Amino acid sequence: MVSYPHEAMHRIFQHDPGLFSRVSHFLGADIPRPVTTSVLPTDLTEDHPVERRVDTLLRFGTADHGEFLLAVEAQGKKDPDKPASWAYYCAYLWTKYRLPTALLVVCQDFITAKWALQPVTCGPAQVPTLTLQPLVAGPHNMPMITDPEEARTDLVLASLSAITHAKDPGIGVILKALSTALKDAPDDVADPIVEFTAQGMGSRPAKHLWRNLVAVDLSFYKSYLVEEIRDEARAEGRDKGLAEGRDKGLAEGRDKGLAISDETRERIGDCRDPEILRSWVTRAVTAPTTEAVFQTE
């Protein structure tokens, strides 16, 4: 099942294809900044029932080195079947587009990154034939961007830094630097980064930290994340108001000397309508009996 972190790890390269040339510096490669970019279909299915889809596929054009393809794969854990799939992707793309093809694997933990870095050959030891050697971006080589000024110079890279270091104990400092840097960014720039970062945290504790930072530092955004936080806050406010209404109703009844049975307490406690609660509180002031409090008009 596709997860939010999985989507964030590769879609961020669709959002800003030039990110790959900036990331390549940390991967030991020197990829020139593209002068043209296009997003290609990710369906690599052939005329047989096995469906093969790469996560993100980009076509780059460079000033000095011509065109090449970049396949981006988000990998959450070791998978012995993946190297064969990746080799297929690269061979198929090379065959279909007749362009050099690079593979980038994005990970969120050291174990998966170390596994993905291992070269895999499809031939016998004496005749390796084709060798798969992906570039791997993960916590082992992505910078930890903890300075808001540094984050401000490349917000998308700062978001990828947070995504790849989502499991790191220092993720809070990275997220704080990013949220601080985003304060000065226009909505159309900041909103996608807020969402990518939220997805990249998945269900980890850092998700709640990012939500809180967005709510405090970026409260003016209209993204789904902020709206979700606001909806929860409104729900909490409603629940608090209901609890106060129930307490007030019981207090009024006790002050009037009305008999408050366990059934009455349960009925008041189960009420989720603030209007009904207010009407009961009003009646409790003058009602001669408990039954009269609950009478219908």
Can you walk me through this structure?
With 297 residues, this protein is of the alpha/beta class. It folds into three domains: 1-142, Trna Endonuclease, Chain: A, domain 1; 143-222, no CATH class; 236-293. The chain has 13 helices and seven strands. β2 (56-62) and β3 form a beta hairpin. The two termini are 53 Å apart.
Quote the distance from N terminus to C terminus: 53 Å
Overall tally of domains:
3
Output the helix-strand order.
HHEEEHEHEEEHHHHHHHHH
Neighbour order of strands in the largest sheet: 1-2-3-4-7
Radius of gyration: 28 Å
Strand content: 5-15%
If you consult CATH, what is the topology of the largest domain? Trna Endonuclease, Chain: A, domain 1
Question: How would you sum up this structure in a few lines?
Answer:
Residues 235-255 are annotated as: Disordered. With 297 residues, the chain is an alpha/beta fold. It is 53% helix and 11% strand.
Provide tags for this entry.
alpha/beta; Trna Endonuclease, Chain: A, domain 1; 11% strand; 5-stranded mixed β-sheet; two-stranded antiparallel sheet; 13 helices; 297 residues
Topology (elements, then pairings):
Layout (H helix, E strand, L loop, with lengths): L3 H12 L3 H6 L11 E4 L16 E7 L3 E9 L7 H16 L3 E6 L3 H8 L2 E2 L9 E2 L2 E3 L10 H6 L1 H10 L6 H12 L4 H15 L3 H13 L6 H33 L5 H9 L3 H13 L3 H4 L4
Parallel strand pairs: 3-4, 4-7
Antiparallel strand pairs: 1-2, 2-3, 5-6
Helix pairs in contact: 1-6, 1-8, 6-7, 6-8, 7-9, 8-9, 9-10, 10-12
Protein name: Rpn family recombination-promoting nuclease/putative transposase
Organism: Streptomyces triticagri
